[in-house]
Specification:
Blueprint (H helix, E strand, L loop, with lengths): L3 E18 L4 E14 L4 E6 L3 H15 L7 H12 L7 H21 L3 H4 L7 E7 L9 H14 L4 E5 L4 H15 L4 E5 L6 H11 L4 E5 L7 H10 L4 E3 L5 H10 L5 E2 L8 H14 L3 E2 L7 H12 L14 E5 L4 H6 E2 L8 E3 L9 E2 L1 H7 L4
Bound molecules: magnesium ion.
């Protein structure tokens, strides 16, 4: 079997036609760090990190000497080698995103070398399609936000989505009005989730919960600071709205802290940041032991989305019943040429779900010409 011959990073970036914002930040471009791991027989795998692209690139370069010349099929051992190398400096945070990117590329490469889709390597698919929900409904600078949110949400329903997630975090009063408008626009049969991106103190999150409870909220995501485990637990005790979080959490030990605090009903690891598919499987096992649902955070290119599809295709529904509620994958619908143009195939939902790729590896590839164009300095 071949050995790892080359590890290349690509920081790709594209300016957006229209900036958008959430409670913490405004985006006017989308930028991501991809990695390609190539074996000496020419077979390659793609990976992606979630977080600051230039820092992730530096992290990948830090780990590269550990990997060159090694057997890519021993990806678990390579994960451990990176973990041990980084432990003194980056138990949590962006160094885990670098490990994630490499780990994902190794799974893709392994699948291609063994002629098997990643879902098969992960234990075999429980489902051939994965339910998705539309993430959008961000803020912008223009007047008339509430009407625009209502129109945008209705548009997702018209496209076949059965669930949508909207941003909150503008203040309790404004949020409550926006949630009411979106609920009115989509009707009662569509699931509606809200996400504040840790905008609130417990007192504010509690007030918002009281104001929106009548709108049948599927979950309240990142209501308070990711460091406020006690706030999470307290809010969760006081509301029937399920509490979700974990996109800022890293590694199985980070999620252990979240679960030990009884902070969430739904865990949301980002597989391109939490430690990759290798650590994602451990987090899923830990979540299973705590009877916590896993619904990955996913906000990148088609590589990240394919990772989520393979991962969720192998997740069991707990506790198990004949008519079980299927797991959900986040499908970002905001403007992103890196997702829509750079990677193939282009995933589109049909009937609220997306087919899991069946080609060897992740089943995604990167357009070489656009990769060169999007990698130019900006
Ligand atoms: Mg979120």
């Amino acid at each position: 079997m071949p050995n790892i011959a080359r590890i290349e990073t690509f920081v790709v970036s594209q300016r957006l036609q229209k900036p958008f914002s959430y409670s913490q930040w405004e985006y006017d471009r989308r930028t991501v760090c991809l990695v390609r791991v190539t074996a000496d027989d020419g077979t390659y795998g793609w990976g992606e990190g979630y977080g600051p692209a230039g820092v992730i690139r530096a992290g990948i370069e830090f780990f590269t000497p550990l990997l060159l010349g090694r057997d890519p099929l021993a990806n678990g051992a390579l994960w451990q080698a990176m973990h041990v190398r980084g432990l003194d400096f980056g138990r949590r945070g962006v160094l885990l995103a670098a490990i994630s990117a490499i780990d994902i590329a190794l799974w893709d490469l392994k699948g291609k070398l063994l002629h098997a889709p990643v879902s098969v390597l992960l234990g075999g698919p429980r489902r051939s399609r994965v339910n998705v929900y539309a993430t959008g409904l961000y803020f912008d600078r223009e007047p008339g936000l509430r009407d625009r949110l209502a129109r945008e949400a209705a548009g997702y329903v018209a496209q076949g989505f059965r669930a949508v997630k909207m941003k909150v975090g503008l203040g309790v009063e404004e949020d409550a009005g926006n949630v009411a408008a979106v609920r009115a626009a989509i009707g009662q049969d569509i699931q509606l989730m809200i996400d504040s991106n840790h905008a609130y103190l417990l007192t504010e999150a509690r007030a918002l919960v009281d104001r929106v409870a009548e709108h049948d909220i599927g979950w309240f995501e990142e209501p308070v600071s990711p460091d406020d485990y006690a706030g999470y637990r307290e809010l969760r005790r006081q509301t029937r709205i399920p509490i979700a979080g974990g996109e800022c959490e890293y590694g199985v030990h980070g999620f252990q802290q979240l679960f030990a605090a009884e902070a969430v009903d739904i865990a949301q690891p980002d597989l391109c940041a939490c430690g990759g598919l290798t650590e994602g499987q451990r987090i899923a096992a830990l979540a299973r032991a705590h009877f916590v649902e896993v619904t990955p955070h996913c906000w990148g290119t088609g590589i990240a989305f394919a990772v989520g599809l393979h991962f969720l295709s192998t997740i069991d529904v707990l506790p198990g019943r004949r008519r079980a509620r299927e797991p959900f994958l986040e499908m970002d619908r905001t403007e992103n040429p890196l997702r829509d143009l750079l990677t193939t195939p282009r995933f589109s939902p049909e009937g609220g779900s997306v087919a899991v790729p069946t080609a060897p590896g992740l089943g995604v590839d990167v357009d070489a010409a656009l990769l060169a164009e999007y990698s130019k300095p900006f």
